[in-house]
Design brief:
The protein is an alpha+beta fold. The protein is built from 3 helices and 4 strands. The chain has a 4-stranded antiparallel beta sheet. Helix 1 packs antiparallel against helix 3. The protein is globular and about 35 Å long.
Length: about 100
């Protein structure tokens, strides 16, 4: 299993737009065999940082998701919305592997 950790820099004046953009990604990731662990929006502290975490069984499964998302109408609409609203300033993607007891 791999977990994708997304670190976003968002426009603090567009947090509502970021949340609107985030919500549809949860079922979209799950539709492509991923497990979404949620988005985490600013509450206390920095007002321009947000996170998301989702997992796939393997890096190959994640790469299949990326290929499918690139041609999926719902995913493309979400990408356009983020671009049009400017709610995401930048993001950084890292991959982690879980450790269980």
């Amino acid at each position: 299993m791999i977990t994708c950790y997304l670190h976003y820099v968002i426009d603090p004046a567009r947090t509502a737009e970021f949340e609107h953009d985030a919500k549809p990604w949860i079922p979209m990731v799950e539709r492509f065999s991923g497990r979404h662990h949620g988005y985490f929006l600013p509450h206390e502290g920095a007002s321009d940082i947000a996170y998301a975490l989702f997992s796939f069984d393997s890096l190959a499964a994640y790469e299949r998701y990326r290929e499918q998302a690139a041609t999926d109408d719902d995913c493309m609409a979400a990408f356009r919305y983020a671009d049009e609203t400017g709610c995401i300033v930048s993001y950084e993607r890292s991959f982690m592997r879980p450790v269980f007891a």
